[in-house]
Design brief:
single chain; 306 residues; Rossmann fold; six-stranded parallel β-sheet; three-stranded mixed β-sheet; binds NADP nicotinamide-adenine-dinucleotide phosphate
Length: 306
């Protein structure tokens, strides 16, 4: 247990900030954690459950004397929040963010950062379909990756300190360039979410025809899409509006592959289907070997006894 930042200010008190608060406390990595959120309701819940040491009403109050300021709001709100905190930042402070898209956040936040304040973007690759101040938990980042995306010329000592902080929260860390980050995330997160949203939408349309069968027989595969498609609408709207190019590039490739498989089905090309599914099965094995998911059948869901 060693303090890495004397005072941490969390702007936004949802899933990610809440989990950071709990993991920071678990690690003893901060002298004090101050938090604020847009709505009085969220601030009140955070105070009630003791999510942070001190809940304050304004971002100005939150960032005053803070050594680390974490922007944990939807990507589309980052620029406005940065403009609001800028005049109140302590010289030498570090501003970071947890946004799911990096280039757009750098463009929106960077210009507001005053001289003498370090801006070091980051992105924890961990989350759930839940949101809000009650959804956080201390273990969220354990053995998951946090990508640190420093701009050229960032102070290496501060990049190192932020890296040690994320490691104290349980994360593995790696540095990445913003455009590469956005492309990697388009493949691993953004496009899969769009596909899940689409599949659930198609089934919802169909439900009007088949009544409740889509829900009743969902364990056949459909329910795994619904977990992803239950993710926060504001967050995901902002992801697609701000990671437009990379998502469209991956969606284009996805559509081509889909047409190829559609054609294989139409022409009865069993070899092509078999080879394709054999290749994709190996990817799942790689994820398990990398410790990024459970090897238990059906994601470790117990067998329900009747
Ligand atoms: P969340 O649980 O929905 O919390 C969002 C917080 O931002 C809330 O405190 C909310 O305040 C505040 N907020 C929303 N709109 C705002 C606005 N226009 N101006 C100022 N504050 C606003 O979201 P989250 O899952 O923690 O996500 C936060 C950030 O982490 C996002 O940038 C997201 O891309 C990124 N991220 C999310 C995940 C994930 O799986 N969820 C994973 C990695 C990174 P109120 O409660 O008062 O409305």
């Amino acid at each position: 247990m060693s303090v890495i930042y004397n005072r941490i200010a969390l702007i936004g008190l949802g899933l990610i900030a809440g989990s950071m608060a709990l993991a920071t406390r678990r690690a003893g990595a901060a002298g004090e954690i101050v938090g604020t959120a847009r709505s009085a309701e969220t601030r009140q819940i955070a105070a009630e459950i003791g999510l942070v040491d001190r809940v304050v009403e304004t971002v100005a109050e939150a960032v005053r004397d803070a050594d680390l300021v974490v922007l944990a709001v939807p990507v589309g709100a980052m620029g406005a929040v940065a403009a609001e905190i800028a005049p109140h930042l302590k010289p030498g402070a570090v501003v970071t963010d947890v946004g799911s898209v990096k280039r757009a956040v750098i463009d929106a936040v960077g210009p507001h950062i005053p001289e003498g304040v370090h801006f070091i973007p980051a992105h924890p690759l961990a989350g759930t379909e839940h949101s809000g101040p009650r959804s956080g938990f201390a273990e969220l980042f354990d053995n998951r990756w946090t990508l640190i995306v420093p701009a050229e010329g960032s102070d290496p000592a501060e990049v190192d300190r932020l890296t040690r902080y994320w490691q104290a929260l349980g994360a593995n860390t790696e540095q990445m360039d913003p455009d590469h980050h956005d492309l990697v995330l388009a493949v691993t997160s953004h496009t899969p979410h769009l596909i899940a949203y689409t599949m659930v939408g198609v089934a919802d349309d169909l439900r009007r025809v088949t009544d409740s069968e889509v829900i009743k027989y969902s364990a056949a595969g459909f329910r795994d899409f619904t977990r992803i498609a239950a993710s926060d609408p504001t967050m995901w709207r902002d992801v697609f509006l701000t990671n437009k190019d990379a998502t469209l590039e991956i969606l284009g490739r996805f559509t081509e592959e889909l047409f190829a498989l559609q054609r294989a089905i139409r022409t009865g090309d069993g070899d092509q289907l078999f080879d394709y599914f054999t290749r994709t099965r190996a990817i799942r094995r790689g994820i398990i070997e990398a410790g990024q998911d459970t090897d238990a059948p059906n994601f470790g869901r117990g067998v329900k006894k009747s």
